Amino acid sequence: AQRVTQPEKLLSVFKGAPVELKCNYSYSGSPELFWYVQYSRQRLQLLLRHISRESIKGFTADLNKGETSFHLKKPFAQEEDSAMYYCALTGNTGNQFYFGTGTSLTVIP
Amino acid sequence: ETGVTQSPTHLIKTRGQQVTLRCSSQSGHNTVSWYQQALGQGPQFIFQYYREEENGRGNFPPRFSGLQFPNYSSELNVNALELDDSALYLCASSPYPTRQQETQYFGPGTRLLVL
After folding, report:
1. DSSP-derived pairing of the beta strands A83-90 and A32-38
2. Interface probe with B: pick from A43, A52, A56, most Cβ of B within 10 Å
3. In this complex, is the C-beta atom of B5 within 8 Å of any C-beta atom belonging to chain A?
4. How many other C-beta atoms are found inside a 10 Å radius of the C-beta of residue A47?
5. Is A97 close to B107, i.e. CB distance below 8 A?
6. Residue B50 and residue A97: Cβ atoms within 8 Å?
7. Is residue B78 a contact partner of residue B63, using CB atoms and an 8 Å limit?
8. Could you tell me how far CA B52 lies from the centroid of its own chain?
């Protein structure tokens, strides 16, 4: 069964501190991994995807196939990073999509 | 380019009734996916339509059905509503099925309450 696990429902860090949001997955194949973000009163939107190997708003995420993880990291958290973050997975054909339960990040000023 | 819209924004139904939720995709997007998001949970994939055909389905019973139209609009129909169907229903559109190159664009959602 395909599954995405985000072990932390809530995470609080101080402004300027490093932040890591954890994501583990199980998938029988080669998955594509994503991080989606939902800011207060806004729609769910794509933050980044592993295939692009990009840094968005200072966030990066590395796919570790050995540990089946795709943790989201930022070296210095900003107040505007406070949001709900969802890790997500799709398979080769892209016709199914699986979200984790989300982590609510609060950056304390 | 307009964004993804959904209607209605809120809806209240009673158990056993049927409901139709609507979504208007971004122009040029041939793929629409529907999700159910219960309170405190992540979105759960219901199904995906590509060029008016169902292209993938999650673990939802047949009473959840959909339609996609050539004008980039789509519907989610739920028959025989149950209390557990109360949730936020999201649609998301993309040019093609959500492979690595494609981004899904989400609508604001329809909040359904079943009494």
Report:
1. antiparallel
2. A43
3. no
4. 20
5. no
6. no
7. yes
8. 14
What's chain A's average pLDDT?
91
Across the strands, what pairs with B66? Answer: B76
B9 near A CB under 8 A: no
Contact A86 B43 (CB under 8 A): yes
- What is A13-82 written as a DSSP string? EETTS-EEE--EEE-SS--EEEEEEE-TTS--EEEEEGGGT--BTTBEE--BTTTTB--EEESS--GGG-
Write down the H helix ranges in B33-80: none
Q: Which residue is listed with tokens 């406070």? A: A82
The DSSP bridge pattern shows strands B44-50 and B105-106 to be: unpaired
Q: Chain B contact for A43, CB < 8 A?
A: yes
Contact between A49 and B100 using a beta-carbon 8 Å cutoff:
yes
Amino acid letter, B93: S
Instruction: Render each residue's pLDDT in chain A as its tens digit; 109 residues.
Output: 668 999 999 999 999 999 999 999 998 888 889 999 999 999 999 999 887 778 889 999 988 989 999 999 999 999 999 999 999 998 766 678 899 999 999 999 9
Nearest alpha carbon to residue B58 among B89, B34, B22, B91: B34
Provide the greatest CA pair distance for chain A: 43
Region B106-115: mean pLDDT is 96
CB B18 within 8 A of CB B64: no
User: A66 is written with which tokens?
Assistant: 């050995």
Q: How far is B16 from chain A (nearest CA, A)?
A: 28
